[in-house]
């Protein structure tokens, strides 16, 4: 049984010391698929402790012991793990066996038709076991490949493309993936290709087409970097503290993760970053902040949006954002969730076509703020830094953080938050 709610406050408003973040769930989940297809000579170091990674690990183990001839399907439930759902759809489609791939109620509302269509074009046996276009999926794994060419829409979720690219080297005819329309969350696609390269898998990317020939992974150790999305919450806490100087070990400027964008974004909110030997130091800059915040685009780093929007609201900085189009199909409708919760302390997020305007004139000092989290880890973690500026912040269903950052509350306590 999880905890219903916690209350947080930060008496000293000072932050100092070291926070050791867990490994990136995005990198970990790619590494697990590469290992499952590549065999024992693919090693992984610093695998994430995130629930989503543990879920995918367990699912791959279950698939490995499924008899190819089994008539009754093996049910694999990924709960709320989006990358696990998308990566497993492609992985199970090429793995002999009979599978029912399902997830949480929210997962059944997160679209997957673009990926299923692409797999069917290749010849895969993937059927909808519920509503067309959505999980659960009935998968007859293993198929005769009909073609090596698929066209996939790139503007809904990059996870569909990553899922196909991860299995591409194991397809007998390889894969030519033609990306249609504007590509969203691009750094996650390049992360996939870079991690395949780490395992010795070559690709060619020309124009809108990525080609991967059939090939085997080479012996390698994939070292998962700390999670930059998790780092973003510490940036927000530093921005809201009276004084702060934190060291985050093993974070490097050149990362596979596009969420390094937080370094530049937070420079507009009074946080200075310096890359030192062995990690990253983030410090609160004393004095006035830059006058205005430029238009911030989250198309390449959607997971940072909640962190930054909430932090800006708490600092009473009006700002405008774009690239939020994928937020409505994530763990929750993140736009609606943000609008509702920001309203609880007087901030408004107004949609204006593709741009959203944050208005903070009405922000007031809420005595007892109660934040709902909508089964979304990032709602909990984006609003928790408000404990730095409001006397008491209650976070409902705080266990959601386990999805990507299980030690989040423990780390907050170590940094002086009083949590009851
Ligand atoms: O491939 C990945 O690891 C991810 C891609 C992104 O999703 P979309 O491509 O759906 O935007 C991101 O939001 C998600 O947290 C992780
Ligand atoms: C969108 C996210 O995850 P997923 O799509 O993997 O559920 C996330 O972690 O913010």
From TrEMBL:
EC numbers on record: 2.5.1.19
Binding-site list for phosphoenolpyruvate: 25, 82, 110, 159, 334, 378, 403
Enzyme class: transferase
InterPro entries for the chain: Enolpyruvate_Tfrase_dom, Enolpyruvate_Tfrase_sf, EPSP_synthase, EPSP_synthase_CS, RNA3'P_cycl/enolpyr_Trfase_a/b
Subcellular localization: Cytoplasm
UniProt KW keywords: Amino-acid biosynthesis, Aromatic amino acid biosynthesis, Cytoplasm, Transferase
Transmembrane segments annotated in the record for this chain: none
One term under GO cellular component: cytoplasm
Catalytic reactions on record: 3-phosphoshikimate + phosphoenolpyruvate = 5-O-(1-carboxyvinyl)-3-phosphoshikimate + phosphate
Protein's job: Catalyzes the transfer of the enolpyruvyl moiety of phosphoenolpyruvate (PEP) to the 5-hydroxyl of shikimate-3-phosphate (S3P) to produce enolpyruvyl shikimate-3-phosphate and inorganic phosphate.
Similarity field: Belongs to the EPSP synthase family.
Protein name as catalogued: 3-phosphoshikimate 1-carboxyvinyltransferase
Organism of origin: Parapedobacter composti
């Amino acid at each position: 049984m999880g905890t219903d709610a916690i209350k947080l406050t930060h008496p000293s408003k000072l932050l100092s010391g070291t926070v050791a973040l867990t490994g990136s769930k995005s990198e970990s989940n790619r590494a697990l698929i590469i290992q499952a297809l590549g065999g024992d000579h693919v090693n992984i170091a610093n695998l994430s402790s995130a629930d989503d990674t543990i879920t995918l690990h367990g699912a791959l183990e279950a698939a490995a012991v499924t008899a190819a001839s089994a008539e009754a399907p093996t049910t694999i439930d990924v709960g709320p793990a989006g990358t696990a759902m998308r990566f497993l759809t492609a992985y199970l489609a090429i793995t002999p066996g009979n599978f029912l791939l399902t997830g949480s109620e929210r997962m059944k509302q997160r679209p997957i038709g673009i990926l299923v269509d692409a797999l069917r074009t290749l010849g895969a046996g993937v059927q909808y076991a519920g509503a067309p276009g959505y999980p659960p999926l009935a998968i007859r794994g293993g198929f005769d490949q009909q073609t090596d060419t698929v066209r996939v829409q790139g503007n809904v979720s990059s996870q569909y493309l990553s899922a196909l690219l991860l299995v591409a080297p194991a397809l007998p005819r390889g894969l030519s993936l033609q990306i249609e329309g504007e590509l969203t969350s691009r750094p996650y696609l390049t992360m996939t290709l870079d991690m395949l390269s780490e395992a010795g898998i070559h690709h060619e990317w020309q124009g809108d087409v990525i080609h991967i020939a059939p090939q085997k992974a080479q012996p390698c150790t994939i070292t998962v970097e700390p999670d930059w999305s998790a780092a973003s919450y510490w940036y927000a806490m530093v921005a809201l503290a009276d004084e702060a100087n934190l060291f985050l070990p093993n974070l490097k400027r050149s990362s596979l993760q596009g969420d390094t964008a937080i370094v530049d974004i937070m420079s507009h909110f009074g946080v200075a970053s310096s890359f030192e030997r062995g990690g990253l130091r983030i410090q609160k800059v004393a004095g006035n902040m830059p006058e205005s915040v430029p238009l911030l685009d989250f198309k390449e780093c959607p997971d940072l949006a909640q962190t930054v929007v909430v932090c800006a609201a708490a600092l009473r900085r009006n700002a405008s954002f774009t690239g939020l189009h994928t937020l409505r199909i994530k763990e929750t409708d993140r736009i609606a969730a943000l609008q509702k919760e920001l309203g609880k302390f007087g901030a408004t997020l107004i949609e204006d076509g593709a741009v959203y305007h944050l208005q903070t004139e009405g922000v007031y000092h809420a005595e007892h703020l109660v934040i709902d989290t909508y089964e979304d880890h990032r709602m909990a973690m984006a609003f928790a830094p408000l404990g730095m500026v409001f006397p008491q912040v209650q976070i409902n269903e705080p266990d959601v953080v386990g999805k990507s950052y299980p030690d989040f509350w423990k780390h907050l306590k170590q940094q002086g938050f009083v949590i009851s």
